[in-house]
Amino acid sequence: MAAAYDFAGAGTVVDVGGGQGGLLAAILEANPGVSGVVFDLPHVAAMARRQLQASGLPARCRTEAGDFFREVPGGGDLYLLRKVIHDWDDERAAGTAALAAGRR
C-alpha cells in the first residue's frame, strides 16, 4: 500500500486498528513529510510504540490507545481502516467507518 498510493499530500495519517504499526511505518519511511498516529487497543498500542521507537520514527508518529467503536483520534488528514472492520458485523463496521470519516 505504501508504494501504490501517493501519501505525500496527507499531512497526518491515522491508522485505525493499526496493530504494531508496520503499515504506518512503511508509509512514513516512503513519505518523509507525513506524520502519523497508530490507534489501537491499549496493549496493542504499547507494542506499536516499541516498534516505532525501534524504527526511529517516534518524532513523526505517535500511538494512541482506545476503542474504535467509541471514538477515533481527530486531526487526521487520511484515515486507514485495514484488516479491522471485516471482523465485525455490517452495523458495527459501518459505524466505525463513519466515525473515521467524521473525524476529519
Overall description:
It is a single chain. This protein has 104 residues and is α/β, with parallel strands linked by helices. The chain has three helices and four strands, in the order E-H-E-H-E-E-H. The chain has helices at 22-30, 42-54, 90-102; strands at 12-16, 35-40, 61-65, 78-81. The protein has a four-stranded parallel beta sheet, sandwiched between helices. The two termini are 21 Å apart. The mean pLDDT is 86.
Please describe the topology of this protein.
Blueprint: E1 12-16, H1 22-30, E2 35-40, H2 42-54, E3 61-65, E4 78-81, H3 90-102
Parallel strand pairs: 1-2, 1-4, 2-3
Q: Tell me the major beta sheet.
A: 4 strands, parallel
List segments where confidence is low: pLDDT < 50 over at least 5 consecutive residues.
none
The rounded Rg comes to 13 Å
* Number of beta strands: 4
Terminal Cα span: 21 Å
| Biggest sheet, spatial arrangement of strands | 3-2-1-4
Q: How many DSSP helices? A: 3
- The helix/strand class is alpha/beta
Global mean pLDDT: 86
The succession of helices and strands, N to C, reads: EHEHEEH
Percent strand equals 15-25%
- Helix content, binned percent: 25-40%
Tell me, briefly, the overall form: globular
Entry summary:
By secondary structure, this protein is an alpha/beta fold. Helices cover 34% and strands 19% of the residues. It contains 3 helices and 4 strands, in the order E-H-E-H-E-E-H.
